[in-house]
Amino acid sequence: MTNKKKVFVVPHSHWDREWYFTIEDSNVLLVENLDYLMDVLENDQDYNGYVFDAQMSVVDEYLKIRPEQRERLQKLVAAKRIFVGPWYTQTDSLLVNKESIIRNLLYGTRMATEMGHSMNNGYLPDIFGQNMYLPSMFEGFGIDYSILQRGIYTDQLNGDLNFTWKSPDGKGVKANNIYFGYGPGKFLAADEEYHQERLIPMLDKLAAMNESTDNLLLPAGGDQVLVRDHFPETVKELNEKDDKYEYILSDFESFMKETWKDESAFENVIEGELIASQKSRIHNTIRSQRYDLKKLNYDVENKILYVLEPLAVIGKALGLSYPQRWLDSMWKMLFDVHAHDSIGGCNSDDTNHDIIVRLEKVNRIADGLVNIIKKQLTKAISVQTGQENISVVFNTDSKNYSGLIETVLFTKKTTFTLQSYQGDAVPFELLSQEYISGGKKIVVTAEGEKEVEVPGYYRSVIQAKLIEVPAMGYTTLFVEEQETTVTKVNSSKESFIENDQYRVTLENDVLTLENKQTKQKLVDFIRFENVADAGDSYDFSPLPGDEPIHWNEARLVGVKKGEFSQRLVIEFTAELPAELNGQNRSNDTKAFKILTTFTLQDGEEMVRVHHGIDNICKDHRIRVLLSTGLENVAHSYADQAFSVIERPVVQPYLEGWREKGFAEAPVPIYPLENFVGVTSDNASFATITKGIKEYEVLAETNELALTLFRSVGLLGRDNLEWRPGRASGINNKVVYTPDAQLQQEMEFDYAIVWTGKEMDKTELFSKTDYYRKHYATYQHQSLNTFEERLERFELPMPIKELQPSNSLFNIDNQAVFMSTCKQSYEENGVIVRFFNPTEDVQRFSVTSEVFTDQAVTNLYETVLGKVDGAMEIPPKGYVTIKLT
């Protein structure tokens, strides 16, 4: 028979960094497997290639134990016989910051290239859904292809598993959907039974789904598998007996290059986010699993990206060293956290404990580095100004900052004033103040050591209103201790709070939000929902017959009002079932309390909301349901990477999903990066969250539901209500995870934005920057040495003096946003990335008296051309600039 279809057999290992096993288990196994893989490849030249899951982390870990094998491994990577990169780890692209994804690829591609070759494939075998900007990111690293498994509806394929995958900015990659996943050829054999009963039916199915090519892809691997040394011989035997298919032992790069020789053969284009659950489980509700882990990751990512790195750039421009080696170490620890199982939280308790510890380590290092940079810069400013008692506000954004800042001041007196370095009074209010005993210190004298009493002092938390803090720079405030009247936040007997935009009232146990500009009101605008969770660490599962418990009963705890901020504290209480008892809720109930603080600040168009919860129940899910004031909401919108994605409130694929054989129910529960909203002609309602990653718009009530947390105690469970069949992951062992019940105190923060008009969705990017804070503060003082991590230790002060105000650069377009500012990978400049989430082309200029040269780069940070004048960013696009 002529014109056989070609089957590209790609041997590989999918290497989970950690899961139901720990990272140490993985690494011990890794060394044994990689040792053996190199032996097999060197001893059998017919074994022409092996894909080691596109992760450089495995190489990093291997060489820590086997440093003497570097040259040997490099030779195999350079010869394209072992494929690594472009990732450092297989990141979950829907649960981490967009810049964390780019940074993961930057380290992965750079390190793989240094080893000899980075695989030209954005390989996505197992992550739970695909970020809509992945094609653009791959293109930015010069990656031509992407092979991926999850998230595609069959009708999107239009008869071909090969297609062009495009991002909202129009950039794309040539893609292939591994329809049967990454393991259909794992047990490849040439015996008659396997060949006829398993292999041929699979290949026939693949052939039917590849109308435009005779090339078929057969990934031949699995989780943590050892190299199949018999594959070259097996392929020969299959070719001798099969008159329909020709088998080629190959790799992903070769398959894609050969298959896409004639690009015109594949006309199908698939755009955007891929979260379909038809063929593969997508685990939509994993976004709310182990909230504690996700919240800590959110905090750490934001601290590094929006405070530490830009602050370190300011420091370096003014004479300090940039902590690159520390950041390398921190990012690699974060990349381990960001692997798809890890950040998902669908792990053993031991593994999740390690993830938390890893995040806490990174957080402590970040705090220490920020502390050092602030202290060294502030000391240099103090020398120049001749003022000892100063407070410096650092702005780590590319635009000037105006508004409230919160900071801590230590003084000997209870009263003091603030002045700008130009001599203008800076208004502020006192949020809290406490007296701290000075204790005793040891003084060495000729008569020996003596204890000396140290005078006490005051710790004051204040909010100051600043007219302008220069972009990517700082301003200095002088603290003058004197007898004066200090504006304070005081308790109030009133049951409402307000600013120019909003009023929040608790009256007769009814909580009302009023928009003072439009006179619109939302009565009972917040309530809570509790349901049983009969699922596992991968998926929420409703308990058949269970009815949700809703409550909005509120008790006023207190009101505090000041000139710049007002706070309303309320306690919501309900009697909730303590846990699941078999297949039912237990009859035992517990008083479940949610302490909620609403804050309105002067000049802000948002209501800040804080929930404090001590979770005393098990096997349940808690959501907050927010009234939007809208009717017949058809779509929601949320941010994802560099723009906004719109999603249906009613999922069109949900009806009949079981009959259609979906892997799991395509429920309209979605991920968000920072914000989510709904809008109409006469109103818009949105929330900006801090670490809350899951939402749903309820079609019946038009409420916006934010999942606060899930509480479950099993890693895997069979036959869930929304997920039929086997447990995900391991299905032959029950792994109990009592820590995942989250029996602990947790805090949740978000802001409500409610307007009486159709909202420009991109406004929320600006509000997000403001809400999550792009500033840091530091007081030069000698009273307290325990406020920050390293205050009590001596530090070198390498800078002699600095001006009281400074700015490295700024931009002139409010519709353009900075997503990263850091030292370049090659340490020869500063990399700044700007993005445009709007529907229109945006022009902007970077103005700087410090950086004389500007150049455009790709994401790999290769210079593409000089910048001369204003730059343009296409709609929903981004641009990377190198400043030197």
UniProtKB/TrEMBL annotation:
What is this enzyme's EC? 3.2.1.24
| Alphabetical list of InterPro entries matching this protein | Gal_mutarotase_sf_dom (IPR011013), Glyco_hydro/deAcase_b/a-brl (IPR011330), Glyco_hydro_38_C (IPR011682), Glyco_hydro_38_cen_sf (IPR037094), Glyco_hydro_38_N (IPR000602), Glyco_hydro_38_N_sf (IPR027291), Glyco_hydro_57/38_cen_sf (IPR028995)
GO MF annotations in UniProt: alpha-mannosidase activity
Domain Glycosyl hydrolase family 38 C-terminal spans what residues?
497-712
Write out the entry's keywords from A to Z. Glycosidase, Hydrolase, Metal-binding
**Nucleus listed as a keyword:** no
Q: Which residues form the Glycoside hydrolase family 38 N-terminal domain?
A: 6-261
Q: Which PANTHER family match?
A: ALPHA-MANNOSIDASE 2C1, MANNOSYLGLYCERATE HYDROLASE
Q: Which family does it belong to?
A: Belongs to the glycosyl hydrolase 38 family.
- What's the name of the protein? Alpha-mannosidase
Q: Which organism is it from?
A: Sutcliffiella tianshenii
